[in-house]
Design a protein that fits this description.
membrane, transmembrane helix, Growth Hormone, Chain: A, mainly alpha, cell membrane
Amino acid sequence: MKLLGRYGSLPKLLRVRWMGQLTDGAFQSALASFVLFSPERQPNAIKAALAFAVVLLPYSLVGPYAGIFLDRFSRKRVIQIANFLRAADLLIIALLIYQGSTGITLTLFVLFAFGVNRLILAGLSAGLPLLVEKKDLIAANAVAVTGGTIFVVIGGGLGIGLKNLVNSATTGDHVDAILILTAAGGYLLAALFASRIGKREIGPLSHEISQEIKGFGEMLEGFHILRSHGDAIRGIIATGVQRGGITALTLMALLLERNTYNPPTDPDAGLRGFAYALAIAGIGIGLGALAGPFGVAKFGRHKWIRISMVAPIGFLILFGVFTNEFMLILTAFFVGGFGQSLKITNDALVQSKIDDEFRGRTFAFYDVAVNGAIVSGAIISALVLPASGVSLLMPWLIAIAYTLTAFILLRKSKFLAYSSSTN
């Protein structure tokens, strides 16, 4: 709360971010209900992974071009217009779902919605360092990113609650359409909140704007800028590995709740169980974010990133042996918590090292790299997981990936050696 009082413009950015992510949760719960938790659409690992790919693909397609907009035009205007477009897009999606459409047309509009979302979040992350001092970046990221994640969980819960409220009055697909129609109103509110931010308040600054447009070259330029900061690039790769593991674990949880822990003939029970597991993970995420600044203060950014990578490994190993609902929730809590602590710490590390002139391009590369790892996690889980979701191998593969990342990619001689180059 002291942070919000010290920086008067920060709450304006948070309102935009949190309203958008609250709405994201409701939108995603409606999509999950329509695609994965409908009685006539029983998912296997391949179908679940394809659904994740539809969500994640735009991040990799839009990411290379995000820097074109975010480093040249008012980020406030970009975020505001993107939210208006997203609201309009959801009106079309609601109509398609009301009609029961599951084809390529629906997929394209969903891809557009998530692609625009990537642009918004990258813009908010790139603009954050202009609102707070460098010494407060970790705390600001903890508030912004973690608050947003918690609001996604809350939005998902609200979506499921609304679905249960109106489920008796209409059919499942019509309920999902109503949820998405409501979400369109949420994105419209986020656009209105963005109007409160000053035109150049979150950048780019006038003297930093470049007129040269390079498309994919923007992302490559971000990569070349990061190459001179070896710790930042290693932190980004570690964040990708961690997020890829979370994706695989999420798909495993989805299949377990849908097809094993609950009767496959009762998809609503599976959806409630999955939402409960996500809510517990959300609590872990919140606590992990609170622990981040304390961990950094005690161990330093670089060592804390490494600790956060190692900490959940034991829980993953145990979950592979004891694949019950209690261990799923416990594992989700710790993987989510330490994963979020790693993410906010690395975000602050990257933000502190890159000048605002290049920050949009750098975060464009960051987004593409991390989401590429997430898609890889989805693909691997699709190949490994049975329809039941019960697997010894999947949690152990995640544990192995985390171990190799912590002790090879983030080893002291190559990663912690940079600790003196940043605060």
